[in-house]
Write a structure and sequence with these properties.
- By secondary structure, the protein is an alpha/beta fold.
- It is built from 3 helices and 6 strands; from the N terminus they run αβββαβββα.
- A 6-stranded mixed β-sheet has the order 1-6-5-4-3-2, covered by helices on one side.
- Strand 5 (about 100-110) and strand 6 form a beta hairpin.
- It is elongated, with a radius of gyration of 24 Å.
C-alpha cells in the first residue's frame, strides 16, 4: 500500500485498526511512534547495486490503555511527516514489536489494515545458479493414453 492510498482510506474510517496475518489484532491502544522514510542501498549476490526506499510506520504497544488513535490524528501525523521530511508517495513498511521488531507490508481488507509478513528472497536468482522451481503435477492428472499400462493388462 502506498502512502496516498492510506490517506484516501483514513477519512472513511471511524477507527484505525491493525491486524496481523494470523488474525491477532494490534491492541487498540497502540501508538504510531515514528513515520519516516528509509533508504536501503545494497548490492545483491549477483553484483547488482540496488536502492530501495519505503515510508516507514512504527507501531508501539504502550501501557496507555486510554489511548485510541483516531483516523484524523493519523492523517495529521502523515501530513506533518510529508511537509517536514519531504516524504514521497512510496510503499509503506510497518515495524511492529513481537518477539523482535518485525517488518510488514500493509494492505487494507475493507475494514482493517493488515500487516502482511515480509519474506526474504534472492533478487539475483539467474546469477546465483538457483534452479527454477519444478512444476508439480499430480499423477492422476497425467493423460492416460494407449501407450500406458492399465491395471490387469499384464504389462507391469
Amino acid at each position: 500500500m502506498k502512502l496516498s492510498e492510506i490517506k484516501q482510506i483514513l477519512p472513511t474510517l471511524d477507527n484505525v485498526e491493525f491486524q496481523l496475518e494470523n488474525g491477532a489484532f494490534v491492541p487498540e491502544h497502540f501508538h504510531v511512534t515514528e513515520i519516516g522514510s528509509i533508504t536501503k542501498h545494497f548490492i545483491d549476490c549477483g553484483g547488482v547495486i540496488r536502492n530501495e526506499k519505503v515510508v516507514n510506520f512504527q507501531l508501539w504497544n504502550a501501557n496507555d490503555f486510554e489511548h485510541r488513535l483516531k483516523p484524523a490524528k493519523l492523517l495529521h501525523i502523515i501530513q506533518l511527516s510529508e511537509d517536514k521530511l519531504n516524504i514521497e508517495d512510496l510503499e509503506i513498511e510497518v515495524e511492529y514489536q513481537s518477539d523482535t521488531i518485525g517488518k510488514y507490508d500493509l494492505v487494507f481488507n475493507g475494514n482493517t489494515f493488515v500487516l502482511q509478513n515480509k519474506k526474504t528472497a534472492c533478487l539475483a536468482q539467474d546469477a546465483c545458479g538457483i534452479p527454477a522451481e519444478k512444476q508439480k503435477i499430480k499423477l492422476v492428472e497425467l493423460n492416460n493414453d494407449s501407450s500406458c499400462c492399465t491395471p490387469n493388462s499384464g504389462c507391469c
